[in-house]
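Action item from last meeting closed. Structure (86 res):
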């Protein structure tokens, strides 16, 4: 898929120490895509960032534009709060 990264997303990824490699991995093969507010969706996957603990990486994407724009990305340990059971 074709995605563009907003300046805000790039700054937040740097501040939160989330590599572009992990974000692109979620964008290319998300385990879930969840509806968010407006035209945004959260692409998300559970990931071990190398510390032996699983986090949920959420990548918020504006799908109303072409190419789709990555708005922000963050990791959270609160998996149950965001993970949708199928």
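Sequence:
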């Amino acid at each position: 898929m074709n995605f563009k990264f907003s300046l805000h997303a790039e700054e937040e990824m740097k501040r939160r120490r989330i590599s572009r490699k992990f974000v692109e991995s979620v964008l290319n093969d998300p385990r879930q895509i969840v509806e968010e507010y407006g035209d945004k969706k959260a692409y998300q996957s559970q990931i071990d960032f190398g510390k032996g603990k699983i986090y949920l990486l959420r990548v918020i994407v504006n799908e109303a534009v072409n190419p789709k724009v990555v708005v922000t990305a963050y990791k959270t340990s609160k998996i149950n709060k965001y993970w949708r059971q199928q």
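Note appended to the action item: The longest helix spans residues 7-15.
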